[in-house]
Amino acid sequence: MSDETQISVRDVSLSYGPIVAALDLTFDVRRGEFVSLIGPSGCGKSSALRAIGGLLSPQTGEVHLGGSVVRGPRPKEISFVFQDLALYPWRSALRNVEVALQFAGVTRKERRARAMEALHLVGLGDVPNRFPNQLSGGMQQRVAIARALVSDASVLLLDEPFAALDEQTRLRLGGQLLTLLEEQGKTVVFVTHSLSEAAYLSDRIVVMGPRPATIKEVISVPLPRPRHPSMMRAPEFHELTDRLSSLLFEDDRGPS
Asked: Which of 20, 165, 173, 217 is least surrounded by CB atoms within 10 angstroms?
């Protein structure tokens, strides 16, 4: 991770018609950094992610990527993995991974080779011809991640990609993903409801309040890299998740 700022969110407010989702969001993401967004359901985490990716225009403020204002999707620089995966059921795992390369005009031979390499990276090199309905939920998640990794985009935006999985599986897949991303030097913004997931994977965590969301705090994770599951037993890990929990639930407390 470098000290260079790759993503800059400045005074961004987001609305859907009369509903204000977020107010005056301001934070930076450094190149090669893994930053998680956490907060109550409906607080605007996913909206903030979409604004970073150019899929949602701010009502006020700006998002900068590499020094220039984001005014729309930038697929050469930003890849997405969504919770709903959006895999094509009529395409094999391999051909699902090839989709972005196909749209980019990459030759059939090259995109087949790159897609196979991406499947090997996520541990699915032995099932390239299986269709989504022949894969487990975790394997489908890996296909979606391979599809994001196959591009040359330096930024990866993940919107609760493991939400449908049990805690043990999501932490295992998250750890494997983290290793891949560190090897590739990707910059990551990650939306999750899981405090353990955020603490285990992140360099920093942006804590958002209830809608209309503002940023309550940006917390640096004190765990060294590379991460190992044994770190989740460390006192620092439990202190961090307790702090996150306190920040999230302090708005629910009534007057003393």
From this structure: 217
Per residue, the 3-state secondary structure of 32-50, as one string, reads: CCEEEEECCCCCCHHHHHH
Cβ proximity of 181 and 148 under 8 Å: no
Phi and psi at 186, nearest 5°, equal -70, 150
Buried b (16+ CB within 10 A) or exposed e, 167-188: eeebbebbbebbebbbeeebbb
Instruction: Yes or no: say if 87 and 145 are a contact pair by the CB < 8 Å rule.
Output: no
133 near 91, Cβ under 8 Å?
no
pLDDT digits (tens, 9 = 90+) for 25-50: 999 999 999 999 999 988 889 999 99
Contact 21, 45 (CB under 8 A): no
Q: How far is CA 113 from CA 109, 153, 253, in A?
A: 6, 18, 55
pLDDT per residue over 180-234, tens digit each? Answer: 788 888 899 999 988 999 999 999 999 999 988 899 999 999 999 888 889 999 9
